Amino acid sequence: MSASIERQYLTSVELRYVEGACNYRLIWGLPVRTIKHTHHFGEGHESALFSPGSIFALDLWDRNEYGTIRWRIFILQAGTVGDTVQPVPHVHPGAHVLLHTEGTRRCKLLVQWLRLVEADGDPTSRPPAFWQARDHMIKGLPARWLTPRMLHRLEEHLPDA
Q1: How many domains, the chain?
Q2: What is the pTM of this model?
Q3: What is the pLDDT of residue 122?
């Protein structure tokens, strides 16, 4: 497939920051291009473009005057030509969801765990099965059981994939 056709299949991720209202950011990932749309004090908007098959982590946090109203974290894989992808907020045309969690407690824990994964090497080089196995693990546990220590103990029993 030619490079010009591949460019048509880039996955676009809308990143946005509005002070005190929202922060849609990449935790990690290697975009092929980043386009700044607006940026001024307290507010920014840009797009990150990912090549087919790229793996990246997206953090979507919203708040109002009372505090956090919604917090979601996704580990995603950009689709390739002909793939059927899942709809994901702020990701166009969508992506393969490898891991997803919601809620303040789960997201805080996941951010801590992702830092440990990063310390072990480039998280974008981990195969999709690595992330999918962890997704099944955290979805099957009640939030009150999820602690960094518990995640570490469960991690010992999962394959590296």
Answers
A1: 1
A2: 0.86
A3: 94
- Give me 38's structure tokens: 């607006």
Q: Tell me, yes or no, whether 161 lies in a domain.
A: no
Range of the domain at 131: 3-155
The per-residue pLDDT for range 34-86, each reduced to its tens digit, is 999 877 777 899 999 999 999 999 999 999 999 999 999 999 999 998 899 99
Residue 101: name the closest of 122, 64, 131 by CA.
131
Residue 104: which residues within 8 A CB-CB, separation 6 or more? 68, 71
CB 58 within 8 A of CB 26: yes
Tokens standing for residue 148: 């960094």
Does residue 99 form part of some domain? yes
Residue 89 lies in a domain: yes
19 alpha-carbon distance from chain centroid: 21
Q: What pLDDT digit, counting tens, does each position of 146-160 carry?
A: 776 666 666 665 555
Q: Is 132 exposed, middle or buried (0-12, 13-18, 19+ CB in 10 A)?
A: middle
Sequence-separated (6 or more) residues with CB below 8 Å from residue 102:
70, 71, 72, 73
Residue 107 · residue 73 · CB < 8 Å: yes
- Cβ-Cβ contacts under 8 Å for 8 (sequence gap 6 or more): none
> Would residue 118 count as lying in a domain?
yes
